[in-house]
Amino acid sequence: MPVHFIKKVALIVFSCLFFSESQAETTISLRSSVKVSHAKVTLDDIADIKSDNMHTLIRLQAIHLGNLSKSNHEVIIGRDLIRRWVLQTMRPTAEFQWGGAEQVIVSSLDTGPVHREDGVIRDDWVTLRVRSGLVVVESKVLALQTGGIGQYVRVKKTNVVGSLLAQVVGKNVVEITE
Q1: pLDDT at residue 144 above 60?
Q2: What is the pTM of this model?
């Protein structure tokens, strides 16, 4: 093969990879109100984040926005402040599509500590049951929030963009009923 042909192919492949990462579609949709059962509040707690780029999605989800303490059970965060935090954390040329609420009210569930025997703990693998009539499908998912029996928590399946809201029904078991 001629060298110039190989160089052209390499340039095209490099351009496609670079273009796809820099122009990846990323949307951040803020929720109007959230209740958290933990002190450390992240962007993933207050927004639905979707991205074509997994690295970008993970970095966005982990952005630490602050802590809820016993003395401040409720905090209101405006979209402009959240946007500044995101742009400080990500590369300066990053562009995101913003949607949802103009401000987020973050409040504490104030339910006391949840123990492993009571429900699900954030970052643990749990069983997700999806019920539709008489059909029940089970799958392993990652708990994105801590919650006790009867509470709703966000869970995520690996290699899937976005999260689901499921009800805690037992020790390390959450359920969605359709």
Answers
A1: yes
A2: 0.51
